[in-house]
Amino acid sequence: MRFGRQNQNHHKHSSSSLNLVILISLLFFVGAVVVADLFWASSSSSSAAFRYVSANWPPLQQSPRLQFDYVNRSSHVPQAKTKNPKIYEAQGRVLSATFADLEAPETQWEKMAEAPVPRLDGAAIQIKDLLFVFAGYGTINYVHSHVDIYNFTDNTWGGRFDMPKEMAHSHLGMVTDGRYIYIVNGQYGPQCRGATSNTFVLDTETKQWADLPPLPVPRYAPATQLWRGRLHVMGGSGVNRYTPEVDHWSLAVKDGKELEKEWRSEIPIPRGGPHRACIVVDDRLMVIGGQEGDFMAKPGSPIFKCSRRLEVVYADVYVLDDDMKWKSLPPMPKPDSHIEFAWALVNHSIVIVGGTTDKHPVTKKMILNREIFRFDLDTLKWSVIGKLPFRVKTTLVGYRNGWLYFTSGQRDRGPDDPAPRKVLGEMWRTKLSF
């Protein structure tokens, strides 16, 4: 009997040990499967969207950037305000096609007289009641080489006249002193031809053109302004349209004439690239938004056919003041580019209209902006004060007697698709109050 009990106890202990070994083995097997699954996921193409977006983030010292809103399947998509937003699945989550839209007050718009021609990547300068609208693409294969004038007083277009034959047709740098308009290089011809170094001045009273000394090297879509008696040209892209440049030059000018024969080198801008707003206010030189990279000509193409390249859009704001050192100001509410002529000064604030933001991380399509941004120069704070009737980039803005106007540019494909499509000649306005 005593022996039987010992044998029974030994059997129980053996069973317990066996169960423990089986349990440990199962746990080890499950753990190995999980680790292998995680390893596969980290190396699979399913993480491509994340790698694409993270590769486009600027270094940590740059200003914060709005990327996109991921939400769980069971939650709503707060950024999508359309009735039938397109939804893309990625890694067990959903992504709204209109993810970049920010909350904005409803804005009432009135359609005005349409421009004589549609324009993309053109330029515009306002002098009192007149908006001078220059050049731009009509289509990817056709560029304009003339100026149209819009009269805010009677809502009419007229006074068309030609530009010099050597003057660039898009991506111009441009600024005025109230009579003379200074024009700095840009892209000559359609598709994705390179930049030029030619520089001109227009007398808006006589409609006469004159040459200025060319830039030291060609630049594409540089930031351009008049500040303290000098014509400043900063950043932009190099002759290939793609490489962001940080050079900064200035030339002394007065009454449409140069006071020097050569451009002077100035302190480089902290971050290079084209398609930025450049503004002088309170005796400070400001540069807002922009991007690094752009479309390039396809290698070997006889027509310089445009070929898509990686672009990084940013929200950075820089200012140059009495210390002659670039300083950072609060960044825009989200990255914004293609805004070089999409701004106006209103009640000691900077108002910026539309533009482009980061590409869609799944479809890789360009995303247009619909917001109207305000930068209060007293508080140095950004806000979203309204929305456009549609998303649009490279639009041309004017402001007169409380009314904000915009014309031309390239609009979206519809409320549910923020990618660019139609080139516009439309003119719209809304009453601003703040």
UniProtKB/TrEMBL annotation:
<keyword id="KW-1133">Transmembrane helix</keyword>
<keyword id="KW-0472">Membrane</keyword>
<dbReference type="InterPro" id="IPR053256">
    <property type="entry name" value="Kelch_repeat-containing"/>
</dbReference>
<protein>
    <recommendedName>
        <fullName>Kelch repeat-containing protein</fullName>
    </recommendedName>
</protein>
<keyword id="KW-0812">Transmembrane</keyword>
<dbReference type="InterPro" id="IPR015915">
    <property type="entry name" value="Kelch-typ_b-propeller"/>
</dbReference>
<feature type="transmembrane region" description="Helical">
    <location>
        <begin position="20"/>
        <end position="41"/>
    </location>
</feature>
<dbReference type="Pfam" id="PF24681">
    <property type="entry name" value="Kelch_KLHDC2_KLHL20_DRC7"/>
</dbReference>
